[in-house]
Amino acid sequence: MDLEFFDDDHLLTAAHVKLVKDLVAFCGQALHLRADTEMAITIVEDAEIRRINREYRATDRVTDVISFAIEDEHEELHGFTAVPRDIGDLFIAPGKVREQAKDYGHSFERELGYTVVHGFLHLNGYDHIKPEDEAVMIPLQKRILADFGLKR
């Protein structure tokens, strides 16, 4: 996985940044993605994720993660080397993640991991709106977290 990571305000510790990067790599392996698959994660304050949620999702509230999946996977161009696949961008608000960890009674690390995996799966076409889709996404999410060692 080729991950671009932005935390300009240093909202995460170095250990948390490492956790996120390691987990993204682990998710890429779990889904058997090409090594040159690209994505970006931007860490933002609660006010910024609320603005993004309001502007792009017409929902005026703070959320933990927003995913912007890129639907088009580029194929080989005229016989040349394949263009790396860009699956999209995640915006994560650690303030909201911290609040949810407290509400659910588990560690910040576990909730951050859950948020990363959840968003990652959305970038790869998984969803949980319909019961049949949820029956695929949620068990996969739980398996990845457990295999990585982030249990409730």
From TrEMBL:
Keywords linked to the UniProt accession: Cytoplasm, Endonuclease, Hydrolase, Metal-binding, Metalloprotease, Nuclease, Protease, Ribosome biogenesis, rRNA processing, Zinc
MF (Gene Ontology): metalloendopeptidase activity; RNA endonuclease activity; zinc ion binding
Pfam families in the record: YbeY (PF02130)
GO cellular component, one term: cytoplasm
Subcellular location: Cytoplasm
Keyword Transport: no
Cofactor(s) required for function per UniProt: Zn(2+)
Binding sites annotated in the UniProt record for Zn(2+): 118, 122, 128
Secreted listed as a keyword: no
Major place of residence: cytoplasm
Enzyme Commission no: 3.1.-.-
Matches recorded under InterPro entries: MetalPrtase_cat_dom_sf_prd, YbeY, YbeY_CS
Family that this chain belongs to: Belongs to the endoribonuclease YbeY family.
Name the UniProt record assigns to this protein: Endoribonuclease YbeY
Organism in which the protein naturally occurs: Lacticaseibacillus nasuensis JCM 17158
Lineage of origin: Bacteria, Bacillati, Bacillota, Bacilli, Lactobacillales
